[in-house]
Amino acid sequence: MSVTPLRTPAGAPEHAPPARPRAWAMPLLLRIHFFAGILVGPFILVAAISGAIYVVTPQLEQVVYAHELRAPVTETTLPLGDQVRIAEEYIGDAASLAAVRPAPNAGDTTRVMFAQDGLGPSETRAVFVDPGTGEVRGDLTVYGTSGALPLRAWVSDLHRNLHLGEPGRLYSELAASWLGIVVAVGLALWVVRLRRARVKRDLVRPRPGATGYRRFFGWHASLGVWLAAGALFLAASGITWSTYGGANVSTLRAALSWQNPALTTEVGDAGSGGADAHADHGVVAAPTATVSPDTFDDVLAVARTENVNVGLIEIRPPSSAGQAWVVQEIQRSFPTEVDAVAIDGDTLAVIDRVDFGDYPFMAKLARWAVDLHMGSMFGLVNQLVLFVVAAGIAVMVVLGYLMWWKRRPTRDTSRRMGTVPGDALADAPLWGVALVVGVSIGIGFFLPLVGLPLAAFVIGDAVVRDVRARRVRKSSTGGAEASVVRP
């Protein structure tokens, strides 16, 4: 006896359950996090390790260059003009006087800085003079407002451009640009996992007893959430030094009037000689004006009656005739002291002054961000926090690669490089694709080293997906033809 299946009457609607749309946003974030971590991880790792080394270099300088930086404390101090003369006699005609940094404290040396052919951008040749006896304690190349000596300058160049000059700066911009994206996407994935997790504390500390992939994932996820704020700060502040993204930041600051107030240095005429937060990276020009070393003492005395009230200062003689002397505070620890005053060297009249209190709020934030990033704002505490964050980022990169390695199929020879998260845009609605493309273009416009790799990834991913789809269709067609029974 056979049972005839029930048929739906002709014309009657069939009530098939509607297909549920597949999730695509979280898989897309996972795919971005995976590929960005794999491809940009080496750059982030180098930047993190070199940054961790950099934050401890101030203490290393005090040991390595103790003879140049320190001098016996004496009861009397030579006038600043005499110290300048001693340095000029030592240097001869090989260089031109560019600036002087008086000894900030008892036991410190005075830096008399010279511009010289052959030095790099922001570099000067510094002669270290004992302010008590006039002894020349050393002669070193120093860098920027930070006054970095050769050891710290070498590490700084490694962190900034891998000692490859301007082309090498692309590496650090790539690392800073993608670090923020990887961390932000990872944080979003962590929030989703936290909402779904049955034991939520396993996402804020490694799961006890976990092994293999789960162990690495536990450390990666828990470290990531604790370091997220610091990593995002380093990424955002690091962009301001970059070539392309940094230029866009400067343009934005100028458009919104977030720049530092300019100091007028023209004697008898309005001009500007102000410096921005990143003025360390210009070329130090040799002054053409003739100055008397004794004027350093007179100018400093006037500046002390105005707004210069800290030990860490720099005195710059006129760069040319008709220019004023500039006395600038260079203290980068909190509270921030970067006040400046311009003084006519002939009349000792104050031409202009700029106080940090007059900076726009966003300009202050930029100054603080730079000093925090360099580890100078809160001294040793700032350095320790930066070291922990940078070292943690390096560990997270290594853990990410270990997770990738643990997830690789050991028997499937076609996927020896590991399991890749599934394609998400194929399941996204049209508006989702448009949103992703629009956001990518916007980010790429402001951060070109995100936009170009992202475009290359999308195009390459689409090509690979198309090739695989064709192989699957060809394989399926071939199988179907083989299964046909010919008469």
Describe the structure.
Helix content is 49%, strand content 9%. With 487 residues, it is an alpha+beta fold. The strands form 2 sheets. It has a 4-stranded antiparallel sheet. Helix 7 crosses helix 10. The two termini are 32 Å apart.
The tally of helices reads: 13
How would you describe the oligomerization state of the chains in this entry?
single chain
Task: Please report the total strand number as a whole number.
Answer: 8
C-alpha-based Rg, rounded = 31 Å
Biggest sheet, spatial arrangement of strands: 1-2-3-4
Classify the helix fraction into a percent range. 40-55%
Main sheet characteristics:
4 strands, antiparallel
> Ranges with pLDDT <50 over ≥5 residues?
270-281, 481-487
On the 0 to 100 scale, the average pLDDT is 84
Structural class: alpha+beta
Could you give the distance between the termini? 32 Å
The percentage of residues in β strands lies in: 5-15%
Order of helices and strands: HHHHEEEEHHHHHEEEEHHHH
Globular, elongated, flat, extended or rod-shaped: what is the shape? elongated
